[in-house]
Amino acid sequence: MKKVISLALAASMALSLAACGGAGSSSAATDSAAATGEGAAAAEATTIKVAAIETAYGTEMWQKVADAFTAQTGINVELTTDKNLEDVIGPSMQGGDYPDVIHLATGREAALTEQFIKGNLIADITDVLSMNVPGEDVKVSDKIAGGFTETSLTNPYNDGKTYLAPMFYSPCGLFYNAGLLKEKGWEVPTTWDEMWELGDKALEEGIYLFTYPTTGYFDAFFYALMYSTGGPEFFEKATHYEEGIWDTPEAQTCFDIVTKLAQYTNPITPAQANDQDFTQNQQLVLDNKAIFMPNGTWIVGEMAEAPRADGFEWGMTALPAVSEGGDRYSYTWFEQCWIPSGAEHQDAAKQFIAFLYSDTACQIFAESGAIQPVLGIADTLEGDNKLFYSIYDNGAKAAMGNFAAFTAIPGVEVRTAFFDPVNSLVSGSITEQQWIDGVKSASDQMRANIIE
Length: 452
Hints:
The structure is a single chain. The longest helix is centred in the middle third of the chain and has 22 residues, at about 220-240. The chain has helices at about 1-15, 30-35, 40-45, 60-75, 85-95, 110-120, 140-145, 180-185, 190-205, 220-240, 250-265, 270, 280-285, 300, 345-355, 360-365, 385-390, 415-420, 420-425, 430-450; strands spanning about 45-55, 75-80, 100-105, 165-170, 175, 210, 290-295, 315, 330-340, 395-400. The two termini are about 25 Å apart. The chain has 20 helices and ten strands. Helix 4 runs antiparallel to helix 16 (about 360-365) and helix 10 (about 220-240) packs antiparallel against helix 11. The chain has two domains: about 1-160 and about 340-375, D-Maltodextrin-Binding Protein, domain 2 (3-Layer(aba) Sandwich); about 170-330 and about 405-450, Periplasmic binding protein-like II (D-Maltodextrin-Binding Protein, domain 2).
């Protein structure tokens, strides 16, 4: 089994992975005993390997959670964290040596999680939802907020089963310097027409309307835009590549808005829109060289030590409505945690995932600004997070979901087809129609290879 999986993985990941990493093993019998709490000696003999992406939340919280899990269950955790996690764990997985749990979201440049989804290399964790949270007398499903285990981000195959656990959710929207708008007497736009008016006004003072960290941030932006132009029905059809969907008026509106927004974008943005320099684009907002940027609530921690203009104050707004009185949407982005189907200790790994929703783990994560999608957690927040997580209480509607999974197509990814061309729109090296043609071509291929 490991050999078959490793061969498939090596083929699908050859272009995106390089570096070194490793994982260990122990007997399945020992693993099962540890996962069910049978025998202290067996539990002590079990070590699961957990690999987690290092983000603005830092790594200390993961070690604290791992230690708390070991204290609760007796199952040891060998933790690996890195900002370029794909490079660290990729080569060993190509050799058939897998972490037992991986915390790595979709939408990253290396697209490792997407490769596992397309290769059917992720374990079914539906049974985790009916498990009790270790140390608590409550089921996992009773703690996770509604809707989070019912989207294509967690159930990518549309088969009624859950494969990825929802983690660290963040309302996404347009972040800005509220202090700048107060100083200038400018209002936050509620429609796109008002947005263009503000853009013209700001340019007269040498300030650009828009920037973005990387084109990857257009996923949450574009999803919310699709909801606002055509509602949930259009979103569902578009994200499942329905034939002719990109020729509809709703789709044209989406393309037109992004293309026009490119004209109001700080021109230095594309050169810095990569995983190494993206904070320089975020700095444009802190320096009043751009007003809005798409982002998530993690931005506060990520830029906590960065210099900023006098009077800087974080603000966040949902996307403007397409027309006066129309719906405004804020996409709810969340990360994912999953178990490779080739992992040695799947029972113990499921115990670990269940523990991630414990009160203990949620409190540890929240101390670093990482908010788990559990019921009632927003009531415990303060400061900027209180402002951000109340966006849905202030008129914005929640958008959730993403493009349906499809089997691997050489050179074709959602990000490369839909979002990466924004760099070229800003620089003027492609036209809107060329972008649309590329989307339609890629969408046809995705539809033909959709995983049902």
